[in-house]
Amino acid sequence: MMLYGGIEAGATKFVCMVGRGPDSIVAETTFPTAEPAETINRAIDFFRVSAGGALAALGVASFGPVDLSPNSPTYGYITTTPKPGWAWTNIVGSLSSALNVPVVFDTDVNGAAYGEYRWGAARGLSPTVYVTVGTGIGGGVISCRRPLHGLVHPEIGHMLIPHDRAADPFDGICPFHGDCLEGLASGPAIGRRWGQPAETLPPHHEAWSLEARYLGLAAVNLILCHSPLRVILGGGVMQQPGLIAMVREEVERLMAGYLQVPSVARELDRYIVPPALGGKAGVLGAIALAMDFSGQPPD
Amino acid sequence: MMLYGGIEAGATKFVCMVGRGPDSIVAETTFPTAEPAETINRAIDFFRVSAGGALAALGVASFGPVDLSPNSPTYGYITTTPKPGWAWTNIVGSLSSALNVPVVFDTDVNGAAYGEYRWGAARGLSPTVYVTVGTGIGGGVISCRRPLHGLVHPEIGHMLIPHDRAADPFDGICPFHGDCLEGLASGPAIGRRWGQPAETLPPHHEAWSLEARYLGLAAVNLILCHSPLRVILGGGVMQQPGLIAMVREEVERLMAGYLQVPSVARELDRYIVPPALGGKAGVLGAIALAMDFSGQPPD
Asked: Which residue segments constitute the domains of chain A, with CATH numbers given?
């Protein structure tokens, strides 16, 4: 039987997997992201040893920025990343020529969104929006049963949301926009605002109601823009107990009865949910991309 | 040769057309939106007389709220509208049973977006975002080459954007949200804020730079959420000379160099554009929906 490979290429670690889904994982490995040639070769070795000639296709869900434009000369590259050594790395070209299989390429968050759509908390639900709140804020969107690409890909972390400076005088930390969503609500933004790491703030600290407010504003805008059938909120910051429930309350309050759809009005706990695949959403999404799209030209 | 029908069902007028596109319009009529039976019968008579047995399918782009869920018992209805007499009107059922043709149903703004995508300012460009700024603010989205549906459909007019109350103490007029996008930037909001109808404000009035700021914030969020290949800004308020250029400047300023894509960074005048089909985008979009989707079940 043919096997599929997936890589979640993160800026700190690579997660590689061979299999056909969460219930048929054949092999799995994780290693730190070192310099590009060494790291990519380590992935290549893993797939050669674990899948050999049975590898049908490979999916790569990568940190970015990445070039997803099929007609671009740098399609398949990690482009202008500040990560030392990785700018303009032809990750797709290196993998496909070494392994001689089709490679499906996407952003890390589109990969995780697709994993959750295929096997997780949004199974079969399109459109779906997946947001990760951690060191940064990123989002993937499934639309028409595939990851959304366009001019580039969604960049929802930089959405501009209401910021009441009387209630929260913090300027935000985004180097581009100051108080965009990521600038106000990422893990490092919480840490900077309150002078201690987010994970050390006690459960009843006002940091969390403010965080829920910003994430609620973002969720409302995403619901209004995409009309998703499910919203998934993941990432390190969302590990905070009770935070997702507070975000749901903010969404209900901010929506103010406007969208009278049952799943929004009365079933928010099934509409705005945590990821079901946990830390494996990205690499499983990469496998799903390989399974579902390796026979097609990139869109 | 088979003909296609289109209806732009507006709250004030119905525009009906028979043809196969902007260069092959066979017949066209416009009449005021009276009570439902009378209005729908007038449309039916128009299509019987103008197309007769040659009518292959009909598209309807309607004011809302509408029910687009194919499995809903009220699919094809105009639902909870405050317009007297029109709540829970089965517009699709009435038209399809009288004319005995497939009917493709969508929102007025998704229809206009599809018209512009098919024959207008966003020809062949998917994703595309279409925003109309007038009595209200609405938006249609083309994603994967068809109008975006999900939980319902995009409702971008109620997006929550930064509102600097020091610079603009106006509370906004949205009955649900106060100072959402529509509450701050629709035509009636401009009129209420400045104490005179928007169209009577002189070209250098500060109203227009404030309007450009709010529309620029909305455009940035739409670009970040959908990654569209084109953004179309239409509607009565956008008739104000120079306003679209001011919105482009705001987008450039607010984006702050973040999306280094040529069409955003240096070609904004080709990226954020007025509609090409003018007032006929909706009815032509309805015809295009009939041509392209009448053979398919509603999604």
From this structure: 3-108+279-293 (3.30.420.40), 121-275 (3.30.420.40)
